[in-house]
Design a protein that fits this description.
The structure holds two protein chains of two kinds.
Chain A: H1 2-19, H2 27-61, H3 68-85, H4 88-91, H5 98-102, H6 108-142, H7 146-156, H8 161-179, H9 184-206, H10 213-227, H11 229-238, H12 243-276, H13 294-307, H14 310-316, H15 318-329, H16 335-338, H17 344-360, H18 376-381, H19 386-414, H20 419-446, H21 455-459, H22 463-486, H23 489-521
Helix pairs in contact in A: 1-6, 2-6, 3-6, 3-8, 3-11, 6-7, 6-12, 8-9, 8-12, 9-14, 10-11, 11-12, 13-19, 15-17, 15-19, 17-19, 17-20, 17-22, 19-20, 20-22, 20-23, 22-23
Chain B: E1 2-11, E2 15-25, E3 30-35, H1 41-48, E4 56-61, E5 64-65, H2 70-75, E6 77-80, H3 92-102, H4 107-120, H5 136-148, E7 154-158, H6 166-181, E8 185-189, H7 193-199, E9 202-207, E10 210-216, H8 217-221, H9 226-233
Parallel strand pairs in B: 3-8, 3-9, 6-7, 7-8
Antiparallel strand pairs in B: 1-2, 1-4, 4-5, 9-10
Helix pairs in contact in B: 3-5, 4-5
Classes of the chains: A mainly alpha, B alpha/beta.
Chain lengths: 522, 234
């Protein structure tokens, strides 16, 4: 056990160090980041509390408050499953320091246990941020007895275990199936999107939106407990105060985790060898070579790097895929049938924010520098200006965002937006794309991490990615604020475009001077 | 071909990695840069290659300052670090073609150069495979070919013989002699003193960031071997 703890602590510190990677910056700034991270967690807990409390009030109105903890527990479990699914390859399997870790005098099961505990530790923080505020909100609204808190505090430790196991099985299966394809990374990305969108679509078919809130709540709770029986056991323990249920919940979670570690330990080397070994044919004959301009060559290299990293694509193209799917499906929906239930004018006004939201999470440049890692020497030694290197990275981001243009036109026309509004929306997409690309690059130059051993760290857990995603959403918030202030969607978008143009100018100036210096100093 | 003038580099924490280095190489020189681990070799090499910024002094390649015109300078040089991490997501030929594109080498020239050096280093058959499947030596060979595609005037190599098999090592030595006979120069660091003594017409010894010996190999060694001189100085 001591060895497992040692392994976990080393890996956890590596994750934390990567998260707060400050490059050449001083300790003071690192400390500021730690404080910022804690404040961020407090803020997220606050948001979680407000959400839980408001939902609790509605549930209480319909005498269904008792379903609240298990409902949130199930929701948290699904989120843990989602976030872990794409971390499995790179954390549990096919991680970069595999050779080093496996050469240590520890058993395979101990290595597996350490990797699973690492996944657990990361997810546990997230579970705490959601479930503790839920417990407080429930406590205020339902006034449960002491048992609720005792069981709640104990059981929260076990919530992430089963979702992590399910995600590990699914994630490994996904990686295994994809490895059989010629373009295995693209196959992995495609299957991941299908799985993710499948998860999102299934609940839509489970409930009927016309049902009363109380029925809907209980129906969802019933469905959740059917799909995820642990939620029912959790509910019996925490609400019913059943000691046996609490023991069953803990036992199932712990035993599954332990058994999974043992089982994976047996096939660990085989799975890793299969996932990590490439195919070498050794029969190449030199033929005619295709030539490109330096910019095109840099762009294609960066684009390939993007598409061979599934977690990069999954995290930065999800919004684009959602917008694109919305654009594809909306023409087949009869909006006139909806007009009785939904305010179409409001929907039209909301469209720019939906588009903006989809774009805000699509910055590839936020990891564009960090992804170079140990390869950065290549770009730095090439006879090209730093502008050209930056331009290639920005072009990749614009390429990823390009489908949003088509989606915007289709959505705008289908929703009956006036021609001028569609044009302005298009302009917003173009300008916002440029802003997101430049902003991501600036943030990554300020918070680079070139010493990562797992891409997940720089794409999902780095300071640059957090800042980029949340400030991107903040910009959508600004658009919403402008809409609220002007009460006119068109005027709000135009003001937003003007603001973006000013910011783009500032970012461009920064990149031209400080950005280049920072790049050179990496 | 190469002029290093008063070059110093201080890292954060005030550690002076290189202290007032002055050095000059002419066309056709093969220069061996020798020193302990942490003596300042890689720092000097990285500054020369334009991959690391520096404040004090300047470095000129073919009379062009790497500080003021890095792009023009880099067109004339090729650099291979001590551990050439190449793009794992590319094939060997994909990487070489990428380098050819960025250095704007014509199609015919790059095909000729790749064919010539890949055959010499016996790696042609593997060029279609992903670099992720390459051994350290194969990556080193690929990096060597990439450094030669654009016929650089100055080749900057950090420990180029590490990871190469004896035959490839001999081939590389022959290539080095060959390109220097054609007017290019080579600046390389090594811990293999026998190779340096046999191959280089000039050597330099760096200790604690200071160049403590520099000149034609026979002048630096005198009646002793390079190994004896190095051990005496250190």
């Amino acid at each position: 056990m001591r060895k497992v703890i040692r392994l976990v602590s080393i890996q956890l510190w590596a994750v934390l160090a990567s998260m707060f990677a400050m490059g050449e910056n001083k300790k003071r700034k690192t400390r500021a980041l730690y404080v910022g991270f804690v404040l961020f967690l407090v803020l997220m807990s606050g948001v979680s509390f407000i959400y839980a409390y408001s939902m609790g009030i509605v549930l209480r109105m319909f005498d269904s408050i008792e379903i609240m903890p298990s409902l949130f527990m199930a929701m948290t479990s699904v989120l843990v499953l989602f976030t872990t699914l794409f971390k499995v390859k790179g954390t549990l399997f096919a991680f970069k320091d595999y050779d080093m870790v496996m050469s240590l005098p520890v058993s395979n099961s101990q290595v597996v246990a350490s990797r699973l505990i690492l996944l657990y530790s990361i997810n546990f923080v997230f579970v705490l941020v959601v479930m503790v505020p839920v417990m407080i909100a429930y406590g205020i609204l339902a006034g449960p007895g002491l048992n609720f808190y005792i069981y709640g505090i104990i059981l929260v430790l076990f919530i992430p275990l089963i979702p992590i196991i399910i995600a590990s099985v699914l994630g490994t299966g996904l990686a295994y199936i994809s490895s059989g394809f010629r373009f295995k990374n693209l196959a992995y990305i495609l299957f991941s999107f299908i799985l993710l969108i499948g998860f999102m679509i299934v609940p839509v078919f489970l409930g009927d939106s016309t049902e009363a809130m109380v029925e809907l709540g209980q129906e969802i709770n019933k469905k959740v407990q059917e799909i995820y029986p642990l939620a029912g056991i959790y509910s019996k323990a925490i609400i019913g105060g059943e000691f046996v249920s609490a023991i069953i919940f803990m036992a199932i979670s712990l035993l599954s985790f332990w058994l999974f570690s043992l089982l994976v330990g047996r096939v660990f080397v085989r799975i890793n060898s299969s996932l990590m070994s490439g195919v070498a044919k050794g029969n190449y004959k030199l033929g005619e070579l295709k030539t490109s301009s330096p910019l095109k060559a840099l762009y294609l290299i960066d684009l390939k790097r993007y598409f061979v990293t599934p977690i990069y694509v999954m995290n930065t193209a999800f919004g684009v895929v959602i917008a694109f799917l919305a654009g594809l499906s909306l023409p087949f929906i009869n909006l006139d049938n909806l007009s009785g239930q939904v305010d179409l004018t409001l929907l039209r006004d909301f469209l720019p924010m939906f588009i903006g939201f989809c774009m805000a999470t699509s910055s590839t440049t936020m990891a564009g520098i960090s992804i170079e890692g140990k390869n950065l020497w290549i770009k730095k030694s090439l006879p090209v200006s730093i502008d050209l290197i930056f331009a290639a990275k920005i072009l990749v981001n614009l390429t990823v965002l390009a489908p949003i243009l088509i989606a915007s036109v289709v959505l705008g026309i289908t929703m009956g937006l006036p021609f001028i509004n569609v044009l302005v929306l298009l302009l917003m997409v173009v300008v916002f794309s440029l802003y997101i690309s430049l902003y991501g690059l600036v943030i990554n130059l300020i918070f680079p991490n070139l010493t990562w051993t797992n891409e997940t760290v720089i794409i999902k857990q780095s300071t640059a990615s957090l800042i980029s995603v949340f400030s991107g959403m903040g910009m959508v918030g600004v658009l919403a604020l402008l809409w609220g202030l002007t009460k006119d969607s068109l005027v709000a978008i135009i003001l937003f475009i003007i603001l973006l143009c000013v910011l783009i100018l500032v970012l461009y100036k920064w990149l031209s001077y400080k950005g280049k210096k920072r790049f050179l100093s990496l | 071909m190469l002029r290093i003038e008063n070059f110093s580099k201080t890292y954060k924490g005030n550690k002076k990695a290189v202290d007032n280095l002055n050095l000059r190489l002419d066309k056709g020189d093969i220069f061996g840069f020798i020193g302990h681990n942490g003596a300042g070799k890689t720092t000097t090499i990285r500054a020369m290659a334009g991959v690391m910024d520096f404040e004090e002094g300047d470095i000129f390649i073919d009379d062009i300052s790497i500080k003021s015109d890095p792009v023009k300078c880099k067109k004339n040089i090729a650099y291979i670090p001590d551990n050439p991490d190449l793009y794992d997501h590319l094939t060997g030929i994909g990487y070489l073609n990428f380098i050819g594109d960025v250095f704007e080498v014509s199609k015919a020239d790059r095909e000729e150069a790749i064919g010539k050096y890949a055959d010499a280093l016996e790696i042609t058959a593997n060029l279609g495979d992903s670099i992720s499947t390459y051994s350290h030596g194969m990556k080193q060979k690929t990096a060597i070919i990439s450094a030669l595609i654009h016929k650089p005037k100055l080749l900057i190599l950090d420990e180029p013989f590490v990871g190469l098999d004896p035959k490839a090592s001999l081939t590389l030595r022959n290539i080095m002699k060959d390109i220097c006979n054609n007017g290019s120069s080579i600046f390389f660091s090594t811990h293999v003193l026998l190779v340096a003594e046999k191959l280089c017409n000039k050597v330099g010894i760096i200790k604690d960031g200071r160049l403590i010996a520099f000149g034609p190999t026979e002048e630096v060694t005198g009646d002793l071997s390079l190994e004896d001189v190095f051990m005496e100085q250190n």
